[in-house]
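Revision sheet: structure tokens.
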Amino acid sequence: MATSGTKTFKLSIADTIEEAYELAGIELRTGYDAETARRSLNIMFADWSNRGVNLWTIDQVSTLLTTGTGSYTLNEYDIDIVSAIVRVTDTSGTSTDLNVERIGRTEYLNIPDKTIQGRPTQIFLDRQITPVLKVWPTPDNTATYTIVANTIQRIDDASASNQDPEVPSRFIPCMASGLSYYLALKKNPEKAGILKQQYEQDFQMAAQEDRGRASLYLTPSRSSY
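Predicted:
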């Protein structure tokens, strides 16, 4: 028997909601049932951001620095920075990417003079509702500086049932089981326990697969006294 020859299966938000209601043993009846499901789906997506780095939510963001300016407001949907470099472009147009060190709130606070100008070597991300990136030293005028960062971003909102969720195929099972658990909490509490177990299992399997494949080599350092 021939196979379909396609590899395009996905669930729309409407399909996800319907599947979740069936898993929870609840009947989808009204428009409000779909509305409350979309709200639960968005809450679940927010929770996923707290569970670790979701690789598909990483995007590269460039912030052009201004001479003498040490603080830069990022987008509200930029949750955190995974890694960053400073791109130095000299007067001839040649660019060089250099490492920057990420420091914490206390380390940044303890910098005696935050107005010193030079090539930025340190960054601090102030993770407010709208995050603020602080650089030190503040940029001088000898070159053009750009912070290029891999940022973790929020998953797109589920704002309408005819949309597709911003979720890769490997996370489809835990998206459906997770939403069914959230719905059961509100509408069928007796089934919530078993659905939570299924959800956590599905999420763990997806999260374990959602990782980089690059080899990691650790070299111990030796010191003599």
